[in-house]
Write a structure and sequence with these properties.
CATH class: Alpha Beta
Number of strands: 7
Number of helices: 4
Distance between the termini: 74 Å
Strand order of the largest sheet: 1-7-6-5-4-3-2
Structural class: alpha+beta
Strand content: 35-45%
Length: 185
């Protein structure tokens, strides 16, 4: 199965790249992902649970970065076995980022997925609809979480500017003689 998506996030290129390279944050955006563990540079383990039709599967997934050109491109592979022994999954994925206007980033990703076993029997339409649903939720979560991180970073300088802004505003509202009296007091 081949998956290809392109979407835009309201976050600058570097901040988006940094977010996408924090496995715990990305894992939190993936429906069914229970845990993510960094096992080495560019190597991760995850526990993911899925339900497709009547079949439930829990996968232990290993992810390895195979190529990177920060902050523009990353390629990685993943493979995993169903904890119940009924299915196996493997995938080759790419992630490409492009600055749009200094404050927004386009994310394009591709994934070639191979599934064998019980889940592999759901060929064609069922698995494609399931994958589309998971991808829609994943894209929505990434878009929201990158924005939340960006908003939180932007709020810090505003807090500092807010106090300074209140002081400036206070003096602007006073007549020049009142401002001088307040400053000398």
């Amino acid at each position: 199965m081949y998956i290809e998506r392109t979407f835009i996030v309201d976050s600058p290129l570097q901040r988006t790249w940094d977010f996408l390279n924090e496995p715990e944050k990305v894992g939190a955006c993936l429906p069914g992902c229970h845990t993510v563990e960094v096992v080495g540079p560019g190597k991760y383990k995850a526990s993911v649970g899925l339900k497709v039709g009547p079949i439930k599967a829990g996968f232990d997934i290993e992810v390895e970065t195979s190529n990177q050109n920060p902050p523009f491109y990353s390629a990685y592979t993943l493979h995993g076995d169903d904890k119940g022994g009924g299915s196996k999954v493997s995938s080759e994925c790419t992630l490409a980022l492009r600055d749009i206007d200094g404050v927004r980033t386009e994310i394009a990703y591709t994934s070639t997925v191979h599934i064998v076993g019980k889940l592999g029997k759901f060929a064609g339409g069922v698995m494609e609809k399931f994958a589309d649903s998971i991808n829609d939720k994943f894209v929505a979560a990434i878009t929201e979480q990158v924005k939340v991180v960006d908003d939180a970073d932007a709020a810090e300088p505003e807090a500092e500017a807010g106090t300074l802004g209140k002081i400036k505003s206070f003096f602007k509202k006073k007549k020049p003689t009142e401002a001088a009296e307040c400053a000398s007091a």
